[in-house]
């Protein structure tokens, strides 16, 4: 199983890239969002990958983070959602947006993906809503962007690699995961907690963990 590709981009198409890994070219399908984030031909790139096996076809699909790869796998478990439809949903919403839409039951957001109709969108929300909290709880650890570790030219002394810098998306995923964990530890049902955290994260994108917990508790508090 090919789980990660690190190399140089040979060319970029509208829905895939060709990555040269020490002389072997791998054609990797990616979403519009991922394609826009990749560098140009000749530049180094790395993607986590999923190998899809069909009767007469092998296809590699690439993702910048393990979180996005996990959502792609889950989306494909829904009847009627193939690998490219799942990629279209992630391209339209991203991993965080997909989690938020499913947790909130927002089928219209899922339907915004090209080629996804209302019936499929509703099915995605219904079938994956119970699984959203578990994936959201892993968000912080799975949101680190894949690093390119392909050595092209030898160097006398390789510098020590610094730890990956946290990006805003990584921070948001970590805040969401921590808030969700805290709420479930307080006794709230995972589905209710996920829905509350997703709603607050959508309304207050700059919220940190403490803010997410405080506002989610207000949302979850029983009304008199």
TrEMBL record:
Task: Write out the annotated subcellular location.
Answer: Cytoplasm
One GO MF term, please? four-way junction DNA binding
Which Gene3D superfamilies does the entry mention? 5' to 3' exonuclease, C-terminal subdomain, DNA helicase RuvA subunit, C-terminal domain, Nucleic acid-binding proteins
One Gene Ontology CC term in the entry: cytoplasm
Region Domain III: list its residue ranges: 170-224
User: Where do the record's region annotations for Domain I lie?
Assistant: 1-64
Q: What is its main location?
A: cytoplasm
Which keywords accompany this UniProt record?
Cytoplasm, DNA damage, DNA recombination, DNA repair, DNA-binding
On assembly, the entry states: Homotetramer. Forms an RuvA(8)-RuvB(12)-Holliday junction (HJ) complex. HJ DNA is sandwiched between 2 RuvA tetramers; dsDNA enters through RuvA and exits via RuvB. An RuvB hexamer assembles on each DNA strand where it exits the tetramer. Each RuvB hexamer is contacted by two RuvA subunits (via domain III) on 2 adjacent RuvB subunits; this complex drives branch migration. In the full resolvosome a probable DNA-RuvA(4)-RuvB(12)-RuvC(2) complex forms which resolves the HJ.
Matching NCBIfam families: ruvA
Q: Which family does the entry's similarity section mention?
A: Belongs to the RuvA family.
Q: What is known of its domains?
A: Has three domains with a flexible linker between the domains II and III and assumes an 'L' shape. Domain III is highly mobile and contacts RuvB.
Its annotated function is as follows: The RuvA-RuvB-RuvC complex processes Holliday junction (HJ) DNA during genetic recombination and DNA repair, while the RuvA-RuvB complex plays an important role in the rescue of blocked DNA replication forks via replication fork reversal (RFR). RuvA specifically binds to HJ cruciform DNA, conferring on it an open structure. The RuvB hexamer acts as an ATP-dependent pump, pulling dsDNA into and through the RuvAB complex. HJ branch migration allows RuvC to scan DNA until it finds its consensus sequence, where it cleaves and resolves the cruciform DNA.
Which HAMAP family does the annotation name?
DNA_HJ_migration_RuvA (MF_00031)
Protein's recorded name: Holliday junction branch migration complex subunit RuvA
Species the sequence originates in:
Fertoeibacter niger
């Amino acid at each position: 199983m090919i789980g990660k590709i690190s190399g140089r981009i040979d060319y970029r198409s509208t829905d895939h890239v060709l990555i040269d890994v020490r002389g072997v070219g791998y054609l990797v399908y990616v979403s519009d969002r991922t394609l826009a984030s990749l560098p140009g031909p000749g530049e180094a790139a790395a993607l986590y990958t999923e190998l899809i096996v069909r009767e007469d076809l092998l296809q590699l699909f690439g993702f910048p983070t393990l979180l996005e790869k996990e959502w792609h796998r889950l989306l494909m478990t829904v009847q009627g959602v193939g690998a490219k439809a799942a990629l279209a949903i992630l391209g339209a919403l991203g991993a965080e947006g997909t989690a938020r839409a499913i947790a909130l039951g927002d089928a219209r957001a899922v339907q915004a993906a090209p080629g996804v109709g209302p019936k499929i969108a509703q099915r995605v929300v219904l079938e994956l809503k119970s699984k959203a909290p578990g994936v959201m709880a892993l968000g912080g650890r799975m949101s680190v962007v894949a690093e390119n570790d392909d050595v092209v030219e030898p160097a006398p002394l390789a510098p020590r690699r610094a730890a990956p810098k946290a990006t805003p998306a990584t921070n948001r995923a970590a805040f969401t995961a921590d808030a969700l964990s805290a709420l479930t530890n307080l006794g709230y049902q995972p589905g209710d907690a996920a829905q509350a955290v997703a709603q607050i994260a959508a309304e207050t994108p700059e919220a940190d963990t403490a803010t997410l917990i405080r506002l989610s508790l207000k949302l979850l508090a029983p009304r008199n």
